[in-house]
# Entry
Amino acid sequence: MTATIDTLPDVLSPVRFHQVGKTFGTGRKSVVALDGVDLEVEPGEFVCLLGASGCGKTTLLNLVAGLDHPTAGRIELNSSRPAVVFQEAALMPWLTAAGNVELPLRMAGVPKAQRRAKAAELLELVRLAGLGDKRPHELSGGMRQRVALARALASTTDSTGDAGDKPSLLLMDEPFSALDAITRDVLQGELLRIWRATGTAILFVTHDVREAVRLGQRVVLLSSRPGRVVQQWDVEDAPDAAAVTDEINTALRKVISSHAA
Amino acid sequence: MPLDVQEGSVEAGLDALDTPVDTTEGSRVRRIAARVLPPIGAVVVLVAIWQALWAAAFWPEFKLPAPAAVWSQIWQLVTSGDIAELFWVSVHRAVIGFAISLLIAVPLGLAIANLTVVRRGIGPLVSGLQSLPSVAWVPAAILWFGLNDRAIYWVVLLGAVPSIANGLVSGLDQVPPILPRVGKALGAGRFGGIRYILLPAALPGFLGGLKQGWAFSWRSLMAAELIATSPELGEGLGQYLHNGMSLSDISMVFAGIVLIFVVGVGIELLVFRPLENTVLKARGLGPAR
Ligand SMILES: Nc1ncnc2c1ncn2[C@@H]1O[C@H](COP(=O)(O)OP(=O)(O)O)[C@@H](O)[C@H]1O
Ligand SMILES: [Mg+2]
# Structure
């Protein structure tokens, strides 16, 4: 390993929003999905983004992932390519589990032997070692979502098969909401384990308050139409999880009922 | 149940419970028999009816030949070795025509599917050409190129290219939009996205187009060979059929029809069906029944 000459300051955030806005369409039919969003994720931090359906959570993640561009403000990205996990696993049905994990590496031009090794390592990380040869349709919903997570983590590596010195960032868009309760509970535990093992920063979108409180160090509540940051809670050091959950629930209900009028 | 469940064991249990199981049963021989016997039975019944009609002598012999007479025509082609030339002339033309069609149809389909202007401009034209019987091009092709292979390939191309291109377009249109989005999130560029995501995702629809393209190219070829006959062109199955008509030999005509049918269906069963089944099975999509 060569030493980098100008070492990055250790406070550089993987992602920082500066008054970000996103409007779909123009004229009278336009929809303001996001407006004046300021948000910062620290290296290694687990942030849960909470909001009602349609408040712009997916839009926000898409902006960070580079799948869409803001119409106002600016997003400062200091991470390697963000890893993205969607609500559906969306595995490529013609590839095996290992083939899916290798896909981003293949597109980045990583040599075959290195790809193999990296995919095996990531499948091990999500506890699917030995199932690399299975096709997506031979896996359960929870297993597919774990393959999707391994594949997303593979996408952060560059052509040398290594993520470089930049902090890593994992974006997750309601990844467990299509799973049954037990599987979801287990995968939440797994995600926390993987987060601790990899030290990656996570921006996790959910509409489930309990999930947000269980997983996140910080919970950010987004309002609806336009999506703005309403309030934030530091839930990691909260003495009483149940009380915080109630408080956030109340705030969320208030945001939703403000749209009834 | 002990309280301290071993780490990871709940997950392992869930995985075991949730994993879909393969429920296909029965031995391989039985499954193959169940596939093969019905069509054989159908052919036997058909030949029996034919034999009965012939024996009843509803029609004179020069209109309806005996099954045995047709068989002896075919058998004579086999023993004399002439069948090899008939097959070679026709099949190699169909294969070359199909291959050229593929080279033209794939870029065409990609352009129609990906570029709005091209889709609006020539999309309807290509669909329209698909419903125009390509045999309608035979007179023009003969006037343009003369009685030669080029005229025949022209007709075959106009039969096969629209089918293959349309198959590719509908295959691409049916790709779930989430897949290219995922591809982009995984770092696919424009060509990486086409090469690694779009094309493989469109493969099942594309194979359907290929199958249809083969049928059209075989059909067009037979029509062209039947109409455009000349010593220069060599004797293919279409010409054989034509000769049967010229000689007023109905058993030869029937033999020609049977051989054309056998080649068309044979290639579909030997090449396209296994290909399609392999691709669909790998994706957990049931094979076409
Ligand atoms: N491509 C688009 N075109 C127009 N409107 C969109 C588009 N994508 C999202 N929207 C609108 O933006 C708002 C936020 O959507 P989204 O980010 O998907 O919400 P969430 O993920 O929080 O449910 C919604 O009102 C939605 O209708
Ligand atoms: Mg959403």
Notes: The longest helix of chain B spans residues 190-227.
